[in-house]
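sanity check this:
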Amino acid sequence: MKKQTYVLRVSCPGRVGIVAAIGNFMADRGCFITQLNQFDDLDSGRFFSTIEFVFEGQKQPSVEQMRAAFEVTALRFDMEWEIYDTTQLTKVLVMVSKYDHCLRDLIYRQATGELYIDIPVIVSNHEDLRPMAEQAGIEYIHLPVTKDNKAQQEERLLEIMESTGSELIVLARYMQILSESMCQKLAGRCINIHHSFLPGFKGVKPYNQAYERGVKLIGATAHYVTGDLDEGPIIEQMVMRVSHAHNPQHLIQVGRDLEAQTLARAVKYHVQHRVYQNGLRTVVF
């Protein structure tokens, strides 16, 4: 029988003795470390680590007891930290507009268990994807947005997030820009996906623009949302080579696949507690 796995997530100023202190804490409580990832960023002077572990001892402490006990070590090294029970599904609120490929992919990966998430609600500024949500048995809330009701609808979104217990918002091709104040409230808890080309194309019909410029690479970028449009800390990126034989429709098809895969990877890394914000960058284990 597979043992229950837990995750200790740590970020703190880098100094001598951190790994030893964590290892001793684990050993003293009968914990067997199954995986340890660590990174010292010499530029920022910060240490990052994700430790997966199981209990080997006969008497297994609760997560609450582990948290209380680790507080002493955390204070010693000025840590930002948390201990997670990996059996707990992360509740994810998904936002969409009219494009369905990213939403369809997330629903499928949730159903197959590839993504260990629970989508309690889908929020959209259009009604187009309601049938897809209802088919999957997921509540669908229509929140149309105008410049006059934007602030009101964002407050409603926060209420929905709280009432459903959602820990993460995923913008699965949601074609509205969140306000600066909303981005601040959701810092580190909201992931967006967008096309990224070399060179980059903004505005309408980016794939047509890419075709006109004869690009040889197209791609997608998943990142945390900030007040700077499409410039938040990057979690995952994917690219694919294309050629002169790809017309705009071909580019759209390739782009859809890349967007769905890139977003799914970013969500997976986040819910597995493997992503750390490090200034404008991220550390991803």
User: Anything to note?
Assistant: The chain has two domains: 6-85, 90-284.
